[in-house]
Amino acid sequence: MTLQQLRYLVEISKCQSITLAAQRLFIAQPSLSKSIKDLEKEFDITILERTRHGVSFTVEGLEFLDYAHRILEQVNGLNNYFNQDSINNRLTLTVSAQHYMFSIEALTNFVKRLKKVSDYTIVFNECRTSKVIDNVLLGKSQLGILYLSRSNNKFMKRLFAQKGIEFTPLRQFPPCVYIGHNHPLKNAGALTVEDLQDYPYIKYYQGNDSYQYAEEVSVRGLQDNRSLVVSDRSTILRLLACTDAFTIGCGCLLPDITKDRILSIPLEGSLDLINIGWIKLKNTNMTPAMTDYVELLEDSIDSLSHPVFAPLKNEA
């Protein structure tokens, strides 16, 4: 097996045609077909089903394709990390994060510092929890931002240990409820689970991942009979601002985005805490850009947190 063969396979998956893939790869179609057949023979599996209408991946083929993507992503990560020209001349920061406003504020402040920097690349990816972890694991992101709680702590720490990832805590918060300025509960100083039972609950989409990957901290007794599942920040902010739905988070609000639209109100009686932190691969060095961004994260969390709560620092 060669990396070239894996690249061929990925191109076929994009084109869904060996003929078109061969054209894009600038190789002869028989050579491409032979390369894939050699893979099938080497691993004793059938990767592609060939018909007069084209090709499709078998179940085993899809599994093989998934591994091919991962291997190529890791190879690209190695090339990018150890490319000396890139290290010496270009400032690079790559971050994957759950949906937090303080991480956007930190990113904004980081970019403001770069006015005199002429060569840099910053990649910031808000995504579901498992993708945050995978991006760090595969080297696509230097840092990941997520939270642990009492309900997922053991699961996540075991997962991090298996994957060679380290978690550094930043701050802890009791949960807060986010609602719109016109919500019937807008004047409450604090809310209980019972107060929320008649209103739709918005959650971030996590695909088929288990509940331990949820972005919303588990709250005992909270029903989700009326649930709204979304994948992006714009949708959740629009729903909060224009309906009587709610969601749960750390309580941080970014005035530029949420002023006169969204409120955060403390949730009473919750037995859990939101322990926000960042992850990176073990035994990897922090670059100056990574260190600066983490410091800005701490500043943003402290400045944007709910005034009722003084965030607890550096608790595991």
Summarize this entry quickly.
The protein is α/β, with parallel strands linked by helices and 316 residues long.
Helix content: 40-55%
Largest sheet: 6 strands, mixed
Q: Which overall shape is indicated by the principal axes computed on the Cα atoms?
A: globular
Spell out the helices and strands N to C: HHHEEHHEHEHEHEEHEEHEHEEHE
Task: Decide which structural class fits the backbone.
Answer: alpha/beta
Distance between the termini: 43 Å
CATH architecture of the largest domain: 3-Layer(aba) Sandwich
Protein name: HTH-type transcriptional regulator CysB
GO cellular component, one term: protein-DNA complex
Keywords: DNA-binding, Transcription, Transcription regulation
Family: Belongs to the LysR transcriptional regulatory family.
Topology overview:
Elements: H1 3-15, H2 18-25, H3 29-43, E1 48-51, E2 54-57, H4 59-82, H5 84-89, E3 91-97, H6 101-112, E4 120-126, H7 129-137, E5 143-148, H8 153-163, E6 165-173, E7 176-180, H9 193-196, E8 201-204, E9 227-230, H10 233-242, E10 247-249, H11 255-258, E11 262-266, E12 274-281, H12 288-304, E13 312-313
Parallel strand pairs: 3-4, 3-5, 8-9
Antiparallel strand pairs: 1-2, 5-12, 6-12, 6-13, 7-10, 7-11
Helix pairs in contact: 1-2, 1-4, 6-12
Organism: Veillonella ratti
Domain HTH lysR-type: 1-58
Protein name: HTH-type transcriptional regulator CysB
